[in-house]
UniProtKB/TrEMBL annotation:
Coiled coil: none annotated. It holds the Pfam family Iso_dh. Signal peptide: none annotated. The keyword Manganese applies. One of its GO terms (biological process) is isocitrate metabolic process. InterPro entries: Isocitrate_DH_NADP (IPR004790), IsoPropMal-DH-like_dom (IPR024084). This is Isopropylmalate dehydrogenase-like domain-containing protein.
């Protein structure tokens, strides 16, 4: 996408557009915190990149972090899920990344790895 944008535009117009895309002169400030629920596997990596490049440069927001990855849900006996839900009720907004549903096959694989 960025390469085609660079090819189409030239000179000062291109420079101005790239500057606007890269830097915000003034970040929008969110009044309330956002409940952030991290997921499993690649969603963690993708979500981190989205925050780094598309959200935090433009929005000043406090994130209340909850790790909803399968290992952490298992460690907390799903209490982290309940805590995240209560935080959403309190703050009225949340962002949730995709998580793994622990079906029988995944649970068996997870527990067999732990016994090694």
């Amino acid at each position: 996408m960025w390469i085609s944008l660079v090819k189409i535009m030239s000179g000062s117009v291109m420079s101005e557009v790239l500057q606007r895309l890269s830097y915000a002169t003034k970040r929008v400030e969110a009044k309330n915190p956002v409940v952030e629920m991290d997921g499993d596997e690649m969603t963690r990596i993708i979500w981190a990149k989205i925050k780094e490049s598309l959200i935090f440069p433009y929005v000043k927001v406090e994130c209340l972090y909850f790790d909803l990855g399968l290992p952490h849900r298992d460690q907390t006996n799903d209490q982290v899920t309940i805590d995240a839900a209560h935080a959403i009720l309190k703050h009225n907004v949340g962002i949730k990344c995709a998580t793994i549903t622990p079906d029988e096959q995944r649970v068996e694989g997870l527990y067999s790895l732990r016994t090694l």
